[in-house]
Prior knowledge:
Blueprint: E1 8-12, E2 15-19, H1 24-30, E3 39-42, E4 45-47, E5 62-66
Amino acid sequence: MLDTNVLTTLIVNGEPQQIRAQTVAEALRALDYADVIVATALNGEFVPARKREATPVRDGDRIEIVAPRQGG
């Protein structure tokens, strides 16, 4: 069983962040994106919303989080 109390260092949109997360979904919750519609990529690969709970993150992984923009 994995320890959920261990901090993981992820590179989020180019900035190092230490969070408690084992999956992309947990990382989004830890970063306050739980209720926001966003696109995500892990180490350069798109991660669809339906696969975030099953996609593990590891120390040093790069996550890109992009929120839609409004206006023109």
